[in-house]
Write a structure and sequence with these properties.
Blueprint lengths: L2 E6 L17 E2 L2 E2 H10 L6 E6 L4 H9 L7 E5 L4 H11 L5 E6 L7 H9 L5 E6 L4 E4 L3 E5 L5 E10 H14 L6 H7 L6 E4 L10 H15 L4
Parallel strand pairs: 1-4, 1-6, 4-5, 7-11
Antiparallel strand pairs: 2-3, 6-10, 7-10, 8-9
Helix pairs in contact: 3-5
Length: 228
């Protein structure tokens, strides 16, 4: 059974307020995406790894890869206008991979063990998630309802899916003009199978806003350098 991986590196840095896409910003002295690639490079189960990135940053990403001593062969392709379109591009690039792992280039604190646990899970489709520790209300300009937080989960990546089924879901979403913020919700919407929730980690944050980068530097100093 072939296992492929799609690394989503399509951010343009709008929410970060910088001209440089967030995946190329430095964390602990090296680009955020490199932290992710180093973990993936330690895996031996992958048959193909595809990185989707903006067209204007393809050469930059390929240069970054050339200057690192990675044993894994990373393939860079152009992403789409949206996250969903980038996943579709990544799926189209996979060859003979029955299973696909999807991860984001801006989740640098994922561990090798988390990747391995996901790959080794007997479930065909699985995601990481953590409980939501705060109250969530429904409303816009006024409060209109309350959600039961014990029934909610904060979704994390990496995620694992049956490749053919996920591709089927993306094709249906494209035909119907529907948008999803991540793939487990798309998978559920089209009834493509059960998605198991594995216990995630509070450390596995997504670097999206400037404050996330500040928190990331603190986490790096405490949990990465502190263990070196």
């Amino acid at each position: 059974m072939g296992i492929g991986m799609i690394i989503l590196a399509g951010g343009v840095g709008s929410r970060m307020g910088k001209s440089t896409p967030k995946q190329y910003l430095l964390l602990g002295g090296k680009p955020i995406i490199v932290h992710v690639l180093e973990k993936i490079d330690a895996l031996t189960d992958l048959d193909q790894v595809v990185i989707t990135c903006p067209a204007e940053h393809l050469d930059e990403t390929r240069d970054l890869l050339r200057h690192r001593n990675f044993g894994t062969s990373f393939e860079c392709i152009e992403g789409g206008e949206t996250r969903q379109a980038s996943v579709m591009n990544g799926l189209a690039a996979l060859k003979d991979c029955e299973t696909v792992i999807i991860h984001e280039a801006v989740r640098p604190f994922v561990s090798v063990e988390e990747f391995r646990h996901l790959i080794d899970s007997e479930c065909e489709n699985a995601i990481y998630g953590i409980p939501i520790p705060f109250t969530v209300l429904v409303g816009n300009e006024r409060v209109e309802g309350n959600l039961e937080r014990t029934e909610l989960v904060n979704v994390q990546l990496p995620q694992k899916f049956d490749t053919a089924k996920l591709q089927e879901g993306h094709e249906k979403a494209l035909a119907e003009g529907l948008s999803f913020t991540e793939d487990a919700s798309l998978f559920l919407h089209y009834g493509l199978g059960t998605v198991r929730i594995l216990e995630g980690s509070e450390l596995n944050i997504k670097i999206t806003h400037p404050s996330d980068l500040v928190i990331g530097e603190a986490l790096y100093a405490e949990y990465i350098l502190g263990k070196a």
